[in-house]
Fold this protein.
Amino acid sequence: MTEAYIYDAIRSPRGKGRKDGSLHEVTSVALSAKMLNAVKARNGLEGQAVEDVIWGNVTQVGEQGGCLARSAVLASDLDEAIPGLAINRFCASGMEAVNLAANQIKGGAGQAYIAGGVEMMGRVAMGSDGAAIAVDPSLAMKTYFVPQGISADIIATEYGFTREAADALAVESQRRATQAWKEGRFDKSIVAVTDQNGLIILDQDEYIRPGTDMATLSALKPAFKDMGEVMPGFDKIAMMKYPHLERVNHIHHAGNSSGIVDGAAAVLIGNAEFGRAHGLKPRARIRATAKIGTDPTIMLTGPVPVTQKILADHGMTIGDIDLFEVNEAFAAVVLRFQQAFDVDPGVVNVNGGSIAMGHPLGATGAIIIGTLLDELERQDKQVGLATLCIASGMGVATIIERV
Amino acid sequence: MTDFTYAVDADAVATITWDTVGKSMNVMTQEAFMTLNDMVDTALADADVKGIIITSAKKDFAGGMDLNAIAKMKEDGGDNPAKAVFEGVMGMHSILRKIERAGMDPKTLKGGKPIVAALPGTALGIGLELPLACHRIIAADNPKAKIGLPEIMVGIFPGAGGTTRLVRKMGAMMAAPFLLEGKLSNPKAAKAAGIVDEVVAAEDLLTRAKEWVLGAKDADLVKPWDAKGYKMPGGAPYHPAGFMTFVGASAMVHGKTMGVYPAAKALLSAVYEGALVPFDTALKIEARWFTNVLMNPSSSAMIRSLFINKEALEKGANRPAEPDQRVQKVGIIGAGMMGAGIAYVSANAGIEVVLIDADQSAADRGKSYSEGILDKGISRKKVTEEKKAEVLGRITATTDYEALAGCDLIVEAVFEDMKVKAEVTKKVEAVVGADCIFATNTSTLPITELAHASARPEQFIGIHFFSPVDKMLLVEIIRGKATGDRAVAKALDFVRQIRKTPIVVNDARFFYANRCIIPYINEGIRMVAEGVEPVLVENAAKLVGMPLGPLQLVDETSIDLGVKIAKATKLAMGDAYPDGAVDAVLFAMADEGRLGKKAGAGFYAYDEKGKRTGLWDGLAGAYPVADAQPELTEVQNRLLMAQVLEAVRALEDGVLMDIREGDVGAILGWGFAPWSGGPLSWLDMIGAPRAVEICDDLTTRFGDRFKAPDLLRDMAAKGESFYSRFAPQKSAA
């Protein structure tokens, strides 16, 4: 069978997703185009060098609407013969873009793709695209809809994670990310964002809070307690769906949940022939991909069943995986993953994650594939698995293997 | 004779007057709607007519739709009742829409005839939906009038445009209490809320209506939603503000209804889907959801029990043919919690009350209970100082039995003890007239035996009030073996005076309500003893529509009362007593002093203010939670069947004489899953064969208490339902 290889993986530094964030002045299209241009320049992709650009993005309205992928291609230096496909699988959009590209290559539909994604959360607010599952009473009641923060707190309640455990994970994420930056572990993959004059706008992640400790976090109030217990009372919905729960333990807050940021990432994927034609050396092969739908109320448990599925589908076991990236959407998601597979926390999110560096929704899936590959190379290990939990109850995973 | 009349006056203003034939309150029927339609057509077609006033000849405008008419609409549909209902509802929409457009040019919105609704009093349901379709609503300043859309209370929702119009008029958030809770307002409050446009003195109602018609301009006739650039107040669902409203609304409605009431869900869906489309499409959507609710067996059952049959029972469906027995003067013996409550509701209904207790201070305390309730009413502006004085003036608190002279009814509410009650009976009968009816308020003691103390057992009857008396809607009337018809009629007339709903049952242990509640509590406790997670037991009960889980219920009624009842029952039943497993838990709790809410400790833990903080964490230690937990539906089947089978047995035993009383009594008496229409309606809904199947399964696994009664097996074999086999006489629905 044709193999799909990763030839390059880059990402922008992540800016705070607020009006005073460094990337707030950059448009979604411009940041996307910068990523595409960087991939083109680093790999010499002249003409119709890739079959398509598959671009993940969650909030597809306003400047992120109207098939952002095509807009990004046209705004970039890529040939107009390359089309552009915008996709949305919520938080796994960037990973789904990579998987879709890889699987099309494996199936013979094109030799190479650029896959990735963008989310300018400070410019296009999360949720501003609407969502029937939250608003349409028929669907919201059928699915026992609760917001994600409540879902994360349900995971904590159901699987017994304390506030302390969640905070400890957050402190460790901050420590690891700080150290990774200090040691320059991301250097080869970070593409600084520059303006039209070549002046640097941002060249490193600005969301990290070095020095975060348990005391800092203990001052933060649970973020979802009021909407759960008072208005409009989502805990009651949780109780209706899970009648063995007497109450929801609200442990999550801004400090142990993923950060709202602006950012983008791109991965160049191609078959062996593409590499030979362009004189590029493959870094890893995409060994397996999987996706799954899960209970939409607890919503964020997807990484566990999708990992079980990807391993089973490909005759692998958890012991075959050297390093893991499990998106830190909320601390409980990662704690649950570690609990379910009994894996050493030392091999999960080695360089920190979204709690420390932020989670630009449409991009994160592609970001963590790149982060995983960088770390496999740094540690000279072979096999890595990346996975994310997803809104409305889904999970996506990718297994890469260095070649 | 028709329900509407038509007249045009000298100033060319047409008046359509609603006056339902043979009823004191206007109700809408299909025929009446057709009459109204014809009159509107006439007025619109008559070039001379300048405008229309729609009003009522009665003191109120209208009480609503004749719910029997809805049932008929379905029946007339034959094989496709949904189609018949949908088309019937769309027919109503087109008439109301015609009134709303009133002949105006749909493009220029000009040339329509002004139509005003003039409401002399109460306007409920269709009685408000019709005015909402008019161009202006003027209400008489009648503080007793109730204006609103109470449909949700009987398991449906406003389906003649009321939902769509109110939401478009005031926004989803503001309309929510009126649609989702059926909130009623007096005219001034309705004006403040924006439901009616104007409140005028009653005598000026028609003058003002006419004045408005004659002065109305084209623009006054255009509804906001028919004007260009209409935006829903508070924001449509995908507007940022509306988004939050709708996200919250689903959660609140779902949580509040526990997902068991189809009408609330359908209403919300009609509001959401309707908000995203033009007005006429929204009406069509409303009609589809309304049809969906009417086709739902839960709604039919709720309408049947909570509206039609409840009313029939209140109006004396089972009253013996005796002369008027309305109570003039009632003597209440025992001024404790129950006696004081009965005194209040009696005095409040205009009955003279003699409240007797052994010492004066106790009697006075009993009277001050009424004062407390009235004061609360004053602070909520529901009661005036005059009214308070009037009500309190009717109550004489005394220790003197001689004061009972002239009473035509005695309600004895002393301590639950045969001997004490017997003494009181004798003492009372010595002073009251020979015609006086003696009622004993008891929840556990057999009436036939209590009647032995009476010299006039045919005038001796049981009346079981529920606590708190002023809040609970049901009164259980118990016929002893010797009780005569006049005593029953007296009790029924009394209950009607105090505006509660009666059921009449024959005398047997625990009568009807308690007979069904006790097994419910016991089943919950039994499961805890078996190792079922207590929270699962409680939530399972709530998720099937019970207001309180069994453990919370026993905490509220107190665990020592449970112990007392268990001991007495065991004594009476001897070896046949089946509830040893329950008693093991109950007695242990009592021994530890965990007596329930009043002790601040029971199956639940309580804080120092007496507020429940959660299930007692010591329960898991005493009754370890099993590794394997049952499915939710199994827990629910056990909790429901425990009650429902008792209802069937009560019917088999002849304790219950009318299935309507079994259903209405269950909902009003102990809050039995109202969405089901009552225990017997629930069995009809799932069908006797399925019910027997559940019983057989539960019997195999949990014991003979779940054995299907012969009656149920027979019905399963014959394919019968309760409401077909025991159909009450046609005259009483």
